Amino acid sequence: MSNLFTPLKLGKLALKNRVIIAPMCQYSAEDGAATDWHTIHLGRLALSGAGMLILEATAVNPRGRISYADLGLWDDRTEQALARSLTAIRKYSAMPIGIQLAHAGRKASTEKPWDGGQVIAPDQTNGWLTIAPSALPYDNDDPTPQAATLDDINDIINDFIGAAKRAERIGIDVIELHAAHGYLLHQFLSPIANQRNDQYGGNLENRMRLLLDIVDGVQAVISDKMTLGVRISATDWVTGGWDLDESIALATELQARGCQFIHVSTAGLSPLQEIPVAPGFQVPFATAIKQVVDIPVIAVGLITDTQQAENIIASDQADAVALARAIMYNPHWVWHAAAELGEQVTAPPQYLRSSPHGKPSPIK
């Protein structure tokens, strides 16, 4: 048996294999509400044979959206819209489904990527005043965000908690808190974006406080059937920014707080980042964190090849691999990987004839 297609447990949740579909923003919601696009897109991915599908970054309040077209989960309307999509998907797929709960912070209020992706000023259509740990924009030319007050921070914590309760109510299996890619929770972690002088800024313990408060709050309201994890950027790739040593300290604390997996990415906090992009370039960060925690660690980042993914698991560099663009380009990536490795994955009976051998193997 290949290593990539061995089962994996995240908390009490059992995954059939170690291929995870990473969150991918679709910029196709209407005032935060899922649309038919989400049903079509997620339904396709839910038939991929992967071990788990994680929904795109889902804002916990309207101000926390990356763009005006982002998915949200903050009220009954957005909850019901997402529930409709999930109901349709569940009819044909039993794949575990997670959701990435997020707040964009100072990287909010932008145009859709295919319309330029530029920042939209607060006084322009579809724009709003962003919020951040400190009144520091992502880029010097961006509007200055509002520095969060303690009341704002308390509201944000409660918004994450409320979204977590809604996620469980509509049948989500896994919650991933988004503390990566330069968004709000990452902004609080990094000394580049967080220059506060209160209990949420300064030393490492204080900069971790918001994320850990949210972890504790979510743990208190979800049932023990739910799996909770965190996605982090292990480094800002900027001198003086968030780094691997701090990520290791955070990972140790997340495990102590009861988190059941860590999803390791990098970057996104500063336009000054210098990233040595190459296949699997982020995997060593996952490996370093895996060496100090006992919970599963997910690696991500330019993992595109079957043997590459198999080697990451076989050599114990990570417990699972997450794919994004590669599986969007080829939704049957997992089927093809199974065929290459002589394995089987579950597929709908309607697709059995697509086997290259004219029989159900390597899909069943």
Automatic annotation (TrEMBL):
The keyword NADP applies. Keywords: Flavoprotein, FMN, NADP, Oxidoreductase. InterPro entries: Aldolase_TIM, OxRdtase_FMN_N, YqjM-like. The keyword Cell membrane does not apply. Residues 3-341 form the NADH:flavin oxidoreductase/NADH oxidase N-terminal domain. GO terms for molecular function: FMN binding; NADP binding; NADPH dehydrogenase activity. It comes from the Bacteria. This is NADH:flavin oxidoreductase/NADH oxidase. Its cofactor is FMN. PANTHER family: NADPH DEHYDROGENASE C23G7.10C-RELATED (PTHR43303).
